[in-house]
Specification:
- InterPro entries: 3'-5'_exonuclease_PolB-like, RNaseH-like_sf, RNaseH_sf.
- It holds the Pfam family DNA_pol_B_exo2.
- GO terms for molecular function: nucleic acid binding.
- By secondary structure, this protein is of the alpha/beta class.
- The chain has one domain: Ribonuclease H-like superfamily/Ribonuclease H (Nucleotidyltransferase, domain 5).
- Helices cover 38% and strands 17% of the residues.
- A 6-stranded mixed β-sheet has the order 5-4-1-2-3-6, with helices on both faces.
- Helix 7 crosses helix 9.
- 35% of the residues are buried.
Length: 242
Amino acid sequence: MTDLKKIAKNLLFIDIETISEYSSLNNLPDRMKPLWLKKAGYLQNTEEISEEEQYFNRAGIYAEFGKIIVIGLGFFYWNENDEISFKVKTIEGHDELEVLASFKKLIENKYKPSDLILCAHNGKEFDFPYLCRRMLIKGVEIPAALQVSGKKPWEIKHLDTLEMWKFGDKKNFTSLELLAAIFNIPSSKNEISGDKVNETYYLENDLGKIARYCREDVIVLAQLFLKFNAIELLKEENIERL
């Protein structure tokens, strides 16, 4: 517990929710459409779905064809009874530039870039590079805490619970939901699951539902981090959703 207290003030858990940048393949700009179709040609399509469905279902995974609509953020603290507690919030919006700028402002105002430790599940392969790529695309300067260019591996303060679970095994991907089930952590999939985000945004027009889902994913992430450090799970009453 002492070690966690030592790093907690600089430890920030994050999760992003992404969608296709356009609501349909037909809405893609003329220059981008053939480039997506070329990309899609390399993707597995065992169910033989249409080009339109493939775009709607898969484009959000790729920073070149997707965009960020929600960023979830959470951190540990200790309450008046010295019990480990957690605060979690989301930055969400239809304007990706505003979402990214708000995220940048928050982490730069609250943390020293040299001290900030970011933690995400599969963050090194997805969340962190996706954030950086979309920031470049939208003209937002990448925060120092996300910059990896020119840094030595030990200078990059990024934690990844997927990497922690692999123990050096490079072969398999293990989802956050599977790890939550293994460790008996309450699921975040009460309203939607990750594969329904595009549908929830474009067909249901429910950004709030996506933000709630993202918030719960951040809580699951933090709970998993505690399990990996042999620390008891957070009590529900000690989780504050902002």
